[in-house]
Amino acid sequence: MFTDEATFHLSGKVNRHKVRIWGTENPREIEENVRDSPKLIVFGAVSSVKVYGHFFFAEPTVTGISYLDMLENYLMPQLQQYMDRDFIFQQDGAPSHIHREVTSCLTARWLSGLDVVER
């Protein structure tokens, strides 16, 4: 299972560090952006069995505590029906993913039937 979050700016701003945009406009044109524009953070997970999502975070940033709350109250209950299968729970090294309470929870609840891989 692969998990990740994505941030969408409600102003229409696009994070150009993670995408390539091809167009006919002048690439050197200066564009004004509003600082600290409102945004929406969305969580999703993909496995060979199912797509889990869309979980919307209410906070402006994902903290270890908000990520743990989402895991315990949203994702883990959905995964209970698939615990008889072997799978790897993969997440990147975001600070909220390696938060002490998150790793303790994953280790305590799933180590017996789930391999936790940090990449």
Task: Furnish the topology, listing elements before pairings.
Elements: E1 2-9, E2 39-46, E3 51-57, H1 64-79, E4 88-91, H2 100-110, E5 115-118
Parallel strand pairs: 4-5
Antiparallel strand pairs: 1-2, 2-3
Low-confidence stretches: 114-119
CATH architecture assignment = 2-Layer Sandwich
List the strand order in the largest sheet. 1-2-3
Number of domains: 1
Largest sheet: 3 strands, antiparallel
Explain how this protein is built:
The protein is 23% helix and 26% strand. The protein is α+β, with helices and mostly antiparallel strands and 119 residues long. The protein has one domain: Nucleotidyltransferase, domain 5, CATH 3.30.420. Helix 1 packs parallel to helix 2. The longest helix has 16 residues, at 64-79. The chain is elongated and about 55 Å long.
List keywords for this structure.
119 residues, alpha+beta, three-stranded antiparallel sheet, elongated
Short description:
The chain is an alpha+beta fold and 119 residues long. The protein is built from two helices and five strands. It has one domain: Nucleotidyltransferase, domain 5, CATH 3.30.420.10.
